[in-house]
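To the wet lab folks,

You asked to see what we're planning to order before we commit. Fair enough. Below is the target structure as tokens, and below that is the sequence we designed to fit it. If anything looks off to you, flag it before the synthesis order goes out.
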């Protein structure tokens, strides 16, 4: 082999070894964040010690423009406030300091979850007769957003009701009812849904009692008033009476 050709091949092979293409691997290339998260960190590892990086993506905040100095350990991507919910994709490349040796592109994505909405409940309220079933308290808007895993808690007079993880609730007691909601990731504290619902369950009706002693009255004498030992009560509280003698209604006897 020609000596000059041998030396050329040798230097070409050495140059290829010394100038190997860099690469980057993202620990988690697919990030999911809550609405109005402003920073996402992508941890990475590299080969061939690149010094620069560049991101090109589907949204303005995912485009770095020119190559930027590669930070140690992780790359932070800023997300503007009020960025709409959705999936945003991009690719990242790394390069040496002179931007001569450039890696193959590596894909990444950022999923922005929708803002959490606490929802609302009906506010009409209801009054229920004793022993009659109450109507359910309706949800006028279910809680939504965040990671979508919504949990509910109903409260009566401010106290939590066990096993009430439903958008609607059927009350069994008088009181003021409110609904709270949260999700598992973005809004993990209870937030009260819009609306307050009042339930009034009327007391059971009782017919009362009258004196049962009886009396014997002389001819043409005036009988004594039959005493009331316990007045009728309950229900809606508007009581009407009717007296009977020997099973027949006495007209005008509402007292």
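Sequence we intend to order:
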């Amino acid at each position: 082999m020609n000596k000059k050709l041998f030396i050329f091949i040798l230097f070409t092979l050495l140059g290829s070894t010394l100038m190997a293409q860099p690469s980057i691997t993202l620990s988690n290339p697919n990030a999911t964040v809550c609405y109005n998260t402003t920073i996402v960190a992508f941890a990475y590892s590299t080969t061939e010690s690149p010094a620069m990086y560049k991101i090109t993506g589907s949204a303005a905040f995912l485009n770095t423009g020119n190559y930027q100095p590669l930070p140690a350990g992780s790359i932070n991507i800023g997300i503007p406030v009020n960025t709409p919910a959705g999936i945003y994709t991009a690719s990242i490349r790394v390069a040496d300091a002179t931007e001569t040796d450039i890696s193959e592109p590596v894909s990444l994505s950022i999923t922005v979850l929708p803002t959490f909405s606490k929802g609302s409940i009906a506010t009409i309220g209801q009054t229920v007769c004793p022993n009659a079933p109450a109507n359910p308290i309706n949800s006028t808007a279910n809680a939504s957003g965040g990671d979508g895993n919504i949990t509910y808690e109903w409260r009566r007079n401010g106290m939590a009701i066990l096993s009430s993880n439903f958008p609607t609730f059927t009350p069994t007691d008088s009181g003021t009812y409110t609904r709270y909601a949260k999700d598992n990731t973005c809004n993990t504290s209870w937030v009260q849904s819009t609306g307050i619902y009042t339930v009034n369950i009327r007391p059971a009706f009782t017919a009362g009692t009258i004196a049962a002693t009886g009396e014997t009255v002389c001819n043409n004498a005036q009988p004594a008033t039959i005493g009331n030992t316990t007045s009728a009560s309950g229900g809606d509280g508007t009581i009407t009476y009717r007296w009977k003698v020997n099973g027949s209604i006495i007209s005008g006897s509402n007292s």
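Structural context that might help your review: The CA atoms of residues 217 and 223 lie 6 Å apart. The longest strand covers residues 86-95.

Thanks,
Computational group
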